[in-house]
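Sample 3 of the quickstart, ligand S-adenosylmethionine:
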Amino acid sequence: MTATRKVDLRGAAGTLLMTLYMRRLDALSRRPILGDPYAEEVYDRIEHDVHGLWRAAWDVPAIVCRSALLDDWTRRFLAAEPDGQVLHLGCGLDSRPLRVTPPPGCRWVDVDQLQVMAIRRRLYDLPPHVRQVAGSVTDDGWWAAIDPARTTLVVAEGLFMYLSGEALHTAVDRVTGGTPRGEIAFDAVAPWTLPVSRWTPLLRFMGTEFHSAWDPAGFAHRHPDLLERDDVSIYDEVTLREPRVWLRPLLSATGHVPAFQDSLRLHHFTYGR
Ligand SMILES: C[S@@+](CC[C@H](N)C(=O)[O-])C[C@H]1O[C@@H](n2cnc3c(N)ncnc32)[C@H](O)[C@@H]1O
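Result:
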């Protein structure tokens, strides 16, 4: 890792500061859930002018549980497919390729916007089979880095809500049409969170908001060949992973309120032959 960098991130790119900050808080806590060993150092090497990240502290358990579950699914995929391919879309400054240690025979592709990848390249020393590709997932440019013959896992964490519904479908179509078989794992928010996101102070400061929400019927209709493998409410996951056992019944009860149950869910599909 290199010296401290001043960064100026706005729009959806700025939201990576929120998730990195939350992983750092978790890592520094007495009983971490994810325990990302890189979050503190990476965060401390960034100078930014985004004030009020502390407001995101409330969401730490949900965000780090999301990362932990996606790490688990990624490790499971790589254990079964050591020569497979992982497309880590909207990777931000997340250390996932270091946390899950992809085997040397696999191809790993980190994709994020140009300004983000320029910072990421300076902050991380990643092994050569972890490729860093700059581009919007809504464009075709990043696709040149993809091996069209490999069994593929797409991991998109905290990304799809910042894309329009059509852009999301196009990205899914590109992967399922361009690789022979694989898995797609991503999180999605409930429709009621879209208007709320417009008034969320940190998102307002970044100048962004959520653009799409989970629409199970629409997704099934648009992608009839995808088979659902997991559909997990983040509240259920937090209830299972929360180290303070005495908090679990409260979390479980909150998670049974329908609005909360669907506020953030993790989806996992398989496709192909
Ligand atoms: C909430 S952050 C999540 C970052 C990372 N996955 C994590 O968990 O820390 C959202 C990320 O999506 C990226 N992003 C948003 N729109 C994108 C697009 N069209 N193409 C590529 N990346 C995008 C942003 O730059 C940002 O890094």
